[in-house]
Amino acid sequence: MLKTWMGKHFGHRWSRKPPTEEVAPQGRLDHGRLKTLVDFFPIGKKLRYYPDFRKEIVFDTFVVAYCVNGDFLYSGEAIERDFQGYPLVFYTGANEQPVNVADIALFQLLVPDTSDLELKLDYQRRALIGRGQQFKQGNFISLISNVGGKGLLSLDTEVAQQVVLRDGPYARTGMVLLTPYPDTLAVSDQRREARAKTHAPVTVALPEGTVSGPCTIVDMSGGAVRIRVRDRDAAMPEMHNGDEVFLDIDLGAADRHYIVKGSVMKRVPETCVIRLEGLLKNGRIGRFEPLELLELKAGLLNYG
Fold first, then answer.
1. Terminal alpha carbon distance of the chain
2. What is the mean pLDDT for each group of 10 consecutive residues in the chain (304 residues)?
3. To 5 degrees, how large is the angle CA 285–CA 287–CA 292?
4. Are 71 and 96 in contact (CB under 8 A)?
5. How far is the C-alpha of 259 from the C-alpha of 279, rounded, in Å?
6. Are 129 and 115 in contact (CB under 8 A)?
7. What distance in Å separates the CA atoms of residue 87 and residue 104, rounded to the nearest whole number?
8. Is 226 exposed, middle or buried (0-12, 13-18, 19+ CB in 10 A)?
9. 3-state percent helix, strand, coil for the chain, nearest multiple of 5
10. Residue 254, by phi and psi: left (phi above 0), alpha (psi -120 to 50) or beta?
11. Which of 265, 214, 218 is nearest to 240 (CA)?
């Protein structure tokens, strides 16, 4: 069904997008999201994080600096704001070079390399993330900020690189540079957002027609699902973060067959994490209505 629909609507005109550069997430860095980011993930505030979407593994951290277009600033005092608190100018580098918000091409967060905290984990949880692997380039780090009575604010980021600064207040100290995905900013209750396990069948397809072998949705959290290939000798199609994909989910009845549009959040050979973005309705992909997403989740959780 999925291949037929894709062939009818797109033919062979689509090709996969080229690999995204580090700057890609910044296309969604509008003033509102930037204000939320610097308000609730400010320099110096104690935060928590979990690596690679594993919410059962939580560590402490804090933002050491912001990196704007490749230059660092180490204090919130280096941000000029308007009367409503929206950032206007960031003063970066030793010479406090002004960078207007409109000129920001890349905004990143610098955090300490806290790999040694893995030693406090039990063997089972340490094995889940791999010794010394949580800050491997391309991995995801989800930051958590307490926003008082409103709950927890989470932000997904991607590891850009591990660095040892040559100068500045943290010279010769191991750090990690994170590229945020501002559209993942969300207030949530971790108890509601805990992973829910399932074993529903799914096929993953790319717009140009590349289709995976049989796969299984193994768990879900919020608006994302984790998918694993069934055959140990098989692999996920080649995909890059941000690529569009389509999921063909058949839960065993005509009214429980879904074609879902999503985007790649994380891909390794055997698994991928897909953010759910749209649903095929009346021959067209449209946004999920709240009830539709709940219905899909209920179907996945009760499959079998």
1. 21
2. 56 34 47 88 91 81 94 93 91 90 93 83 64 80 78 86 87 92 71 68 86 86 85 80 89 80 86 89 83 82 78
3. 105
4. no
5. 6
6. no
7. 12
8. buried
9. 20, 40, 35
10. alpha
11. 265
Pairing of strands 224-229, 196-205: unpaired
Residue 270 one-letter amino acid: E
Which helix or strand (DSSP H or E) is residue 15 part of? none
Residue 256: how many CB atoms within 10 A of its CB? Answer: 16
Helix (H, G, I), strand (E, B) or coil at 295: helix
100 strand-pairing partners? 89
Strands (E), the chain: 46-51, 59-62, 65-68, 71-73, 79-81, 87-92, 97-100, 107-112, 140-146, 152-164, 174-180, 186-188, 196-205, 215-221, 224-229, 244-250, 257-267, 271-281, 284-287
Domains in the chain with CATH codes? 24-192 (no CATH), 195-301 (2.40.10.220)
pLDDT of residue 109: 96
pLDDT at 29: 65
Give the single-character DSSP code of 259. E
For residues 66 and 148, the answer to whether their CB atoms sit within 8 Å is no
What pairs with residue 257 in β-bridges? Answer: 250
Would you state the structure tokens that stand for residue 138, as one six-digit string? 């391309």
